[in-house]
Amino acid sequence: MPAFLVFRCCSMLVCRFSAGVLFMATLLVVVPSWALDAPPRSGKPAAAETPVIARDLVAAGGLRLQAQRVAKLYLQLGLGLNVPVTTKQIEQALAQTDGELVKLEPYGRRPDTQRAYARSVAAWQEMRGTVQARYNPAAAERVSQLAEELTIHAGKLAMQVESEAGTPVSRLLDLSSRLNMLAQRLARLYMLAQDGKRSQGMLVDIEQTHKEFAVGMQELVMARENSSASRDALELVRNQWVFFDTAVRQIQSKSADGKAAQHVASSSERIAESLDLVTGQYARDFSAAGRPAK
Questions:
Q1: Counting CB atoms within 10 angstroms of each CB, which of 63, 70, 71, 135 has the fewest?
Q2: Rounded distance, CA 155 to CA 11, Å?
């Protein structure tokens, strides 16, 4: 079965999208300063637990995002795009992902999540070692496979954390980080196509991921739970999406070249930054909603 079909089938297990969804910077995932290091708990969260759940949702979403982003950056090295900058971005992404796994360690001791956590660690360790070695086409293919695997396992963790929160804002928090992953996946698929893997299946996978991002973005924008701050952050994402979408769609043009790939590389980083702001704002909104009124 083609890899893109496997990913879409598996993604149904880890998504919490609304009905009708097809399938689906230097960046640091915004981790609120109020995040604590207490272990996760099951059941409906008390007010004191909401910052912990928000932190864990950000961490799981960051793990899912960096899986696709690191693979994208590794492919950029193979294409010779901004090599010094890309190399630095990879180093920072590796450190960021290591930190996310540390925050999620308590889930490795829970019966309901230890398998997903262990598989996330295994996939990440292999991916980390591969991207630190000299670039080669075979390694690039393996990194893309590992990106899909890690995305699935991290998605399962995110789904478990979000289910314990069970609030509209926590759902939006998880969705915003998932959209960040989808944007990076879209950029990674574009880089694969630029590297010569321009099969019909690849083009279909690009279009499918593109559609899922568009549907999810619309859901966020229309959500009644948005605060004025989250609406402002979403407007920035919508502006960045215009540039990113324009760059990605050039893959359909026979004139697509290295300059077009450069546009995708830079715009994918900018949209990731703006989506980080949205995720961070939802995390703050979720935490504030869980605090007792004074």
A1: 135
A2: 8
